[in-house]
């Protein structure tokens, strides 16, 4: 599905280059559930951002569904990730001014989907995640677990074939975390590719493959 | 989608009520002012617009080589008519008139009215509608007239007064009944009926009636004081007509006129805007600029506040980008917000408009329509305007915010938008610059206007009242009026009375050609001439430089005496006043010479635009023309004095109007446009300071919110309250200093330019600028102090805890 070749990412600090990613080469197939692990500062999040096309490497190649991502135009790239990728964040990043319903609806607006279709899609997701009763609440009226549920609902409503999750359970208690991971597993079984960054060994076991990073290199 | 943009915009505004309110208030000040100015300008542009066939309508104006021979807006009496008769293929229609004032009465309803004696073509040529009467024939018969609806109500208490009569007094003291053959409907301001006074509609009658005043003989080529209009045929070039006019003038007018006069056509569309050196046009441009300034300042506030507030929006922007929002969609989102704010401002503006509309109307001497009477286009325009303002003020912040890097904003790395600080300071400096510039302008203009009234005018204007008197312009009439004058002078409230043709700050008399004995008549100089009695100088306390004002007390009247002012003496070529006394001079068309018996000091009979011009006083007994009685009264009880004058007047002149004016008020009228400018600039100053303060209010409170922790730490480290206040103040003071450095030179240049239009003017001094600089800085300092002092006093632990 996607392939990284000799990816480097660095920042200039004074005269030195501070490397965040060093020579990363990686292939991920459709339907995998990958966990990226490693200590703080090992480059996990940066790798995820590169995969999500939110950050650009300084060197290397990245092809996504056969397209060379780093060569195409900004607009096409935006189109690409809009169509295929959903994001889940540690801090949920819901929009405070919008209700649960509207938060979930927002990506559909950006996809230009018609009003009646939007309604039924949002209704389906609310139903599936069992949060119909909360649809008119604002994010600050929800618990952390519920907020993350909304975050995931928002990420998958556009039916992406790749979900990128940056420590999705980091702010949750263990029971909530477990529920979220179960949800990911189900999604994965339905065919969605999932790449998550995590600190937790336990969460990593839900995945089919673990990539360990240390100082910007793949250890295993 | 649009609906959703607005929903989110609404929630964002609700969340930041304070900032939204400050932005809305600022914008509504700007929008209100623009709407008021806009309707005023629209009204001014509509003058003459509804005249029939206005594209082909022209006024004949005159350019004189020697400026004092005739007026600019008048022409030779028979010119318009002759054009039509001799060149029917060029000129389709014509109208000419002669302006008059007379006492008109219906029983005990007695008023002085302007009368327009002119051609019968008037109503049809311009398409004026009559409520009653036939517009085709209304002006055909002699001794008939057409009056306005207001006059109908005033004299008869009802509109339908066809066939009724009003009594008119001639200049020879006779009275005659005129039949009403038409009542005008609503007439919008136009330069046919309102050429001389834009508030009153004159009584209209045809030239046939001029015999009553004995002025039909003045309908001749040597009279340059008539007004003439022509309607050209389609496609006729006004320049062609100008050539024809030159030909006609050469063939018909006397030589002293034909060699000096060049007649030209001014389109009726422009007459009003261009009159009096284009005063209306200048006013329009000035107000337009001021409105623009104020709007820019309000928009600056808005931009500053949106960018300052953007910190709270960073996360939202990041998330939206992650979810696949394109830049354009984000921009639209932010624009929706600014348009919403602008539309709210419009709502408040409409209320403010209604509240301030009477005040503005008074300031501009024009009726500004109320919201209930404006056309629906006004609302359409207002909404479009508000949307435009919303777009203008939102576009920059929208671009800045939508361009922020998405990851950094998500991670919270971006605490503020550093690159914009320079730009924001630039905005504030430009705002301060405008405010200071307007402030300087207002200050200088009021100083100059005060100078008009407080400068030594060369005569005493305090407690002088003038009364328009009936005109019996004959030796008998003068005798009668002088007897009345002497009767009135006996009143204990009155110290002096004088009879004269003109008064200081009045309309100005006629010009006559004068030359010294022994000179050729072609060397004559044209000098403004007014007729007065011998008490004029005493009443106005005009000092004499040499000789006496016609005659000393106890002396009796001797014909053929003349008095000049100092400049007049110089113009005639005398070396000094004493030399002129006893010398004889001659006037065109008069066989006998006149002896100079007195020279007055120069005084300001006209406005201070021009240097004092030469002036000749002739005795009203030599030339029986008079219009006013001037009373010098006891200043301590004006009302009492006026009522005794009125009582006595009613006894002496039963059945004539008692309409008086204080010289002070006449003077106000003379400087009407300057007073208007003064008020407008003061309003502009107040508005710009309000907007500046609103801006500071927003910025300081944002700054306080952002720096709560910093302030807490500083205080824990021992900073005094004052030093905390100074922390905020310092930044503004630097900006004020920069703004001063830019605005003062601009102010000096433009104000000096404005002042050069006056022959008598104040000098710009450093005190003026110091006062403005200190005043402005002080207002800002006090405001910042009030806002920050509370924070400075707060317990630092509290502010540290909030983090």
TrEMBL record, chain A:
InterPro entries: AAA+_ATPase, ABC_transporter-like_ATP-bd, ABC_transporter-like_CS, ABC_transpr_LolD-like, MacB-like_ATP-bd, P-loop_NTPase. PROSITE patterns: ABC_TRANSPORTER_1 (PS00211), ABC_TRANSPORTER_2 (PS50893). GO terms for molecular function: ATP binding. Residues 2-220 form the ABC transporter domain. Keywords: ATP-binding, Nucleotide-binding, Transport. SMART domains: AAA. It holds the Pfam family ABC_tran. PANTHER family: ABC TRANSPORTER ATP-BINDING PROTEIN YTRE, IMPORT ATP-BINDING PROTEIN. This is ABC transporter ATP-binding protein. It comes from Arcicella gelida.
UniProtKB/TrEMBL annotation, chain B:
This is ABC transporter permease. It is found in: Cell membrane. It is a multi-pass membrane protein. InterPro entries: ABC3_permease_C, MacB_PCD, Macrolide_Exporter_MacB. Its main location: membrane. It comes from Arcicella gelida. Keywords: Cell membrane, Membrane, Transmembrane, Transmembrane helix. Residues 21-247, 433-624 form the MacB-like periplasmic core domain. Residues 289-404, 684-791 form the ABC3 transporter permease C-terminal domain. The chain crosses the membrane at residues 21-43, 284-303, 334-356, 376-401, 422-445, 683-704, 716-749, 769-789.
């Amino acid at each position: 599905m996607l392939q990284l070749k000799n990816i480097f990412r660095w920042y200039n600090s004074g005269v030195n280059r501070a490397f965040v990613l060093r020579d990363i080469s990686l292939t991920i197939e459709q339907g995998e559930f990958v966990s990226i692990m490693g200590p703080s500062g090992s480059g996990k999040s940066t790798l995820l951002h590169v995969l999500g096309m939110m950050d650009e490497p300084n060197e290397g190649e990245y092809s996504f569904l056969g397209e060379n991502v780093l060569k195409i135009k900004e607009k096409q790239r935006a189109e690409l990730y809009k169509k295929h990728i959903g994001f889940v964040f540690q801090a949920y990043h819901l929009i405070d001014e919008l209700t649960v319903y509207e938060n979930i609806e927002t990506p559909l607006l950006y996809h230009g989907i018609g009003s009646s279709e939007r309604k039924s899609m949002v209704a389906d997701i609310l139903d599936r995640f069992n949060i119909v009763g909360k649809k008119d609440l604002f994010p600050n009226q929800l618990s952390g677990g519920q907020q993350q549920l909304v975050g995931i609902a928002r990420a998958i409503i556009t039916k992406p074939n790749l979900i990128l999750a940056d420590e999705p359970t980091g702010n949750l208690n263990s029971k909530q975390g477990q529920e979220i991971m179960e949800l990911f597993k189900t999604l994965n079984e339905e065919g969605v590719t999932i790449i998550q960054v995590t600190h937790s060994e336990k969460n990593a076991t839900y995945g089919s493959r673990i990539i360990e990073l240390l100082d910007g290199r793949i250890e295993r | 989608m649009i609906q959703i943009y607005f929903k989110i915009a609404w929630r964002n505004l609700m969340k930041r009520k304070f900032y939204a309110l400050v932005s809305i208030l600022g914008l509504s000040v700007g929008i209100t002012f623009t709407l008021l100015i806009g309707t005023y300008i629209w009204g001014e542009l509509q003058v003459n617009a509804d005249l029939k066939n206005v594209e082909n309508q022209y006024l004949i104006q005159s350019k004189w080589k020697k400026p004092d021979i005739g007026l600019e807006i008048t022409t030779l009496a028979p010119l318009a008519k002759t054009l039509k008769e001799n060149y029917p293929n060029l000129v389709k229609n014509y109208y000419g008139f002669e302006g008059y004032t007379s006492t008109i009465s219906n029983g005990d309803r007695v008023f002085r009215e302007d009368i327009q004696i002119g051609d019968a073509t008037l109503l049809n040529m311009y398409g004026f509608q009559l409520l009653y009467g036939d517009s085709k024939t209304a002006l055909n018969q002699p001794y008939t007239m057409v009056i306005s609806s207001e006059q109908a109500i005033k004299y008869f208490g009802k509109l339908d007064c066809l066939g009724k009569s009003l009594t008119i007094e001639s200049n020879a003291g006779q009275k005659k009944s005129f039949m009403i053959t038409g009542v005008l409907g609503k007439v919008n301001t136009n330069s046919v009926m309102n050429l001389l006074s834009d508030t009153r509609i004159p009584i209209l009658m045809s030239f046939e009636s001029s015999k009553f005043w004995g002025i039909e003989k003045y309908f001749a080529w040597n009279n340059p004081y008539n007004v003439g209009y022509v309607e050209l045929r389609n496609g006729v070039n006004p320049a062609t007509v100008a050539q024809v006019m030159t030909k006609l003038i050469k063939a018909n007018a006397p030589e002293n006129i034909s060699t000096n006069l060049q007649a030209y056509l001014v389109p009726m569309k422009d007459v009003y805007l261009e009159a009096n050196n284009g005063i209306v046009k200048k006013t329009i441009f000035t107000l337009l600029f001021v409105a623009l300034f104020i709007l820019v300042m309000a928009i600056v506030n808005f931009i500053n506040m949106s960018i300052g507030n953007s910190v709270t929006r960073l996360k939202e922007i990041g998330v939206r980008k992650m979810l696949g929002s394109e830049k354009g969609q984000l921009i639209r989102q932010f624009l929706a917000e600014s348009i919403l704010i602008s539309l709210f401002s419009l709502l408040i503006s409409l209320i403010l408009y209604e509240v301030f509309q009477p005040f503005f109307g008074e300031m501009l001497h024009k009726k500004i329509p109320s919201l209930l009477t404006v056309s629906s286009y006004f609302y359409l325009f207002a909404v479009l305007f508000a949307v435009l303002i919303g777009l203008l003020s939102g576009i920059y912040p929208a671009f800045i915010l939508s361009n922020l890097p998405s990851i950094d904003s998500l991670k919270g790395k971006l605490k503020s938008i550093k690159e914009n600080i320079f730009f924001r300071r630039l905005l504030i400096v430009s705002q301060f610059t405008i405010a200071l510039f307007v402030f300087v302008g207002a200050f200088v203009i009021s100083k100059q206007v005060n100078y008009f009234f407080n400068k030594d005018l060369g005569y005493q204007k305090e407690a002088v009242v003038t009364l328009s008197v009936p005109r019996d312009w004959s030796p008998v009439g003068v005798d009668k009026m002088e007897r009345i004058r002497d009767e009135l002078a006996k009143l204990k409230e009155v110290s002096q009375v004088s009879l004269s043709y003109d008064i200081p700050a009045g309309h100005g008399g006629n010009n006559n050609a004068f030359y010294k004995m022994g000179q050729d008549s072609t060397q004559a100089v044209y000098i403004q001439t007014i007729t007065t009695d011998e008490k004029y100088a005493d009443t106005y306390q005009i000092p004499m430089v040499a000789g006496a004002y016609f005659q000393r007390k106890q002396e009796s009247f001797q014909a053929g005496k003349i008095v000049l002012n100092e400049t007049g003496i110089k113009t005639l070529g005398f070396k000094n006043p004493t030399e002129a006394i006893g010398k004889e001079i001659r006037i065109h068309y008069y066989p006998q010479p006149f002896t100079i018996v007195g020279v007055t000091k120069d005084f300001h009979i006209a406005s201070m635009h021009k240097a004092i011009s030469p002036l000749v006083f002739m005795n009203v007994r030599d030339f029986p023309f008079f219009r006013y009685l001037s009373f010098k009264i006891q200043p301590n009880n004006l009302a009492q004095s006026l009522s005794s004058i009125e009582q006595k007047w009613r006894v002496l002149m039963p059945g004539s109007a008692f309409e008086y004016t204080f010289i002070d008020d006449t003077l106000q009228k003379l400087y009407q446009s300057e007073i208007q400018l003064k008020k407008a600039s003061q309003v502009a100053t107040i508005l710009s300071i309000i907007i500046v303060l609103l801006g500071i209010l927003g910025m300081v409170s944002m700054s306080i919110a952002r720096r709560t922790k910093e302030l807490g730490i500083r205080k824990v480290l021992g900073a005094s309250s004052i030093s905390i206040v100074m922390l905020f103040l310092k930044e503004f003071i630097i900006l004020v200093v920069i703004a001063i450095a830019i605005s003062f030179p601009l102010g000096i240049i433009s104000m000096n330019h404005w002042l050069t239009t006056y022959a008598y003017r104040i000098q710009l001094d450093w005190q003026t600028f110091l006062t403005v600089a200190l005043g402005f800085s002080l207002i800002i300092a006090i405001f910042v102090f009030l806002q920050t002092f509370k924070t400075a006093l707060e317990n630092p632990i509290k502010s540290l805890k909030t983090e």
